[in-house]
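Anyone up for a design puzzle?
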């Protein structure tokens, strides 16, 4: 029986994020931006409990990525992996984070249990923001959300992934014609903001070209996007490039995804 690698989006969206990546021996959580209860419920659906967590990797210290962390830390002894910039914010905002913190550096590989990880810097309006690539030595998956645009470092960090959770935050027309105030529209569209459906779709095409079999759209805005719209735009881009065989999924704010095999 091969030791398979899985990714499960317990929740993904601008209202909260918690992504589980696991194999037989190692269980990783990327971000804890929903209630600890919902994270525990998601773990239970995958047959795990908080005490099974081997590590919690934080992408950045915005509340939609860390709001459940304080309570979750009481239910697990797992170390907390974060860059210096994110760590400084966690020390200020999350009681109990201090003794758990393990500093990571973008571009430097590290290991949690049997899994190898690397973080890559993401252009976003949070100090030390990163995405993660995780491998069991055979298969590779990545989580790339909360970025204003796709830098060369991001591309290098994610290309070659068999499965990726890619940001498709907003529909540009819906955002620009919607009710958000001008400063917020500028922030979201800016170089330190979020990827639109088209931006995420372009990265999905690159990933498909480099061998990805499953692409999961994530971090959708509730106000400026819908799962149907994101799937329509990115699906059209993939088909136009001939990548019909790639499985396209959309992660939900509310509902825990199935376990996707990497
Ligand atoms: Zn976010
Ligand atoms: Zn953010």
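Challenge accepted. My sequence:
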């Amino acid at each position: 029986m091969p030791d398979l690698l899985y990714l499960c989006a317990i929740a993904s969206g601008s209202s909260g994020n918690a992504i589980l990546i696991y194999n037989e021996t190692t269980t990783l959580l990327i971000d804890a931006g929903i209630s600890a209860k919902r994270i525990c419920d998601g773990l239970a659906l995958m047959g795990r409990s908080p005490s099974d967590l081997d590590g919690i990797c934080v992408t950045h210290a915005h509340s939609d990525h860390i709001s459940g962390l304080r309570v979750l830390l009481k239910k697990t002894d797992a170390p907390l992996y974060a860059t210096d910039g994110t760590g400084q914010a966690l020390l200020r905002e999350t009681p109990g984070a201090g003794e758990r913190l393990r500093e990571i550096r973008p571009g430097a590989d590290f290991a949690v249990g049997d899994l190898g990880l690397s973080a890559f810097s993401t252009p976003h309006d949070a100090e030390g923001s990163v995405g993660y690539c995780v491998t069991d030595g055979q298969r590779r998956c990545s989580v790339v959300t909360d970025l204003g645009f796709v830098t060369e470092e991001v591309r290098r960090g994610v290309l070659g992934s068999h499965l990726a959770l890619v940001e498709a935050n907003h529909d540009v027309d819906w955002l620009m014609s919607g009710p958000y105030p001008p400063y917020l529209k500028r922030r979201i569209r800016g170089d330190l903001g979020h990827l639109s459906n088209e931006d995420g779709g372009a990265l999905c095409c690159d990933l498909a070209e480099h061998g990805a079999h499953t692409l999961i759209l994530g971090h959708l805005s509730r106000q400026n996007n819908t799962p149907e719209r994101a799937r329509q735009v990115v699906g059209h881009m993939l088909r136009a490039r001939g990548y019909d065989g790639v499985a396209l999924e959309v992660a939900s704010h509310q509902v825990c995804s199935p376990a996707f095999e990497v």
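A detail worth pointing out: The radius of gyration is 17 Å.
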